[in-house]
């Protein structure tokens, strides 16, 4: 099959590209404007004749037409993140919600076989019960979560209204090599690793008992790849989580052990508004429909990610200066 991955130069997207090509896709085409993604993430495929990078914005109709021509399957990951939504909610909506709608419209016009919308667990907000199955209420805490939920609704509407084969998948908290530590796209685990490797104490907002459901990116990309062909998936909405929750306090402790600096205990700042308190996914439906099961336990994944950051530090010695460990209140006020 010929596959398009929007946002394919990003963290999860680039790993998905690697997985799809390794599994024999006839072509994998990436559409990315390189706002968050990088060419470096795709460097391993640059000489692969089955790989193509189209640089452009999903909101540009000419670019969409070029990227979609001849494509069988679309994975739509292009988006702007949660911190971005705090300081520019309108652009966040335009890329995440409107960008999904116009991608659906163009994909339908092109006659693609399946449209896989990669959403986020942030659509749920804080867990009202756990583990959270696909029917858990959706009460997003941020514009980012709201905009991704809009993309879900559009994807399901295209299935119901037009009979278009769409699948919605909600990854929980993915981590691993190439994960973002810098700027407003930085995530807690890589930020914590960078700080500890630099001899700095990690920062926790709130009491540290908020939880997340982590999955290694190799497992996330493997699960996503299964969605390209499986029968009985059209119109489905699937959670992609591990079924295990980790507190921020436990995360910092695990990283400190992996780095060999258990003396660097966290600094606690005030809690962030709109910060989800608890996330714990129920992976049952995903497993039953695709046979997927995760393979990388959290502690091993953290140790491997620490080793990756240690090895890659020579390429980027100023990582600590690139971290934005500011509370969302301060970020919003800027």
TrEMBL record:
Residues of the NAD(P)-binding domain: 4-304
Its name, as the record gives it, is Epimerase
């Amino acid at each position: 099959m010929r596959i398009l991955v929007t946002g394919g130069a990003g963290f999860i997207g680039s790993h998905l590209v690697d997985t799809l090509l390794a599994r024999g896709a006839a072509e994998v085409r990436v559409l990315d404007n390189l706002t968050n993604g990088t060419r470096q993430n795709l460097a391993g495929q640059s000489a692969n004749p089955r790989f193509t990078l189209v640089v452009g914005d999903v909101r540009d109709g000419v670019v969409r037409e070029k990227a979609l021509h001849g494509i069988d399957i679309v994975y739509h990951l292009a988006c702007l993140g949660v911190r971005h939504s705090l300081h520019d909610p309108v652009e966040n909506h335009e890329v995440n919600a409107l960008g999904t709608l116009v991608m659906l419209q163009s994909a339908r016009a092109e006659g693609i076989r399946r449209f896989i919308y990669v959403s986020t667990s942030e659509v749920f907000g804080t867990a009202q019960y756990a583990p959270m199955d696909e029917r858990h209420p959706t009460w997003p805490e941020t514009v980012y979560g709201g905009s991704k939920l809009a993309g879900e609704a559009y994807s399901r509407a295209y299935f119901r209204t037009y009979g278009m084969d769409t699948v919605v998948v909600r990854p929980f908290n993915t981590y691993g090599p190439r994960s973002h530590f810098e700027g407003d796209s930085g995530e807690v685990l890589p930020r914590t690793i960078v700080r500890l490797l630099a001899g700095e104490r990690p920062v926790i907002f709130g009491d540290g008992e908020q939880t997340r459901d982590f999955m290694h990116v190799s497992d996330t990309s493997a699960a996503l790849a299964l969605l390209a062909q499986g029968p009985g998936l059209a119109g489905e909405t699937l959670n992609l989580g591990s079924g295990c929750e980790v507190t921020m306090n436990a995360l910092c402790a695990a990283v400190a052990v992996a780095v060999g600096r258990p003396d660097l205990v966290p600094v606690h700042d005030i809690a962030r508004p709109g910060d989800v308190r608890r996330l714990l996914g129920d992976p049952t439906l995903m497993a039953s429909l695709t046979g997927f099961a995760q393979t990388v336990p959290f502690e091993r994944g953290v140790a491997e990610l620490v080793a990756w950051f240690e090895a890659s530090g020579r390429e980027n010695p100023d990582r600590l200066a690139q971290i934005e460990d500011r509370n969302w209140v301060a970020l919003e006020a800027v």
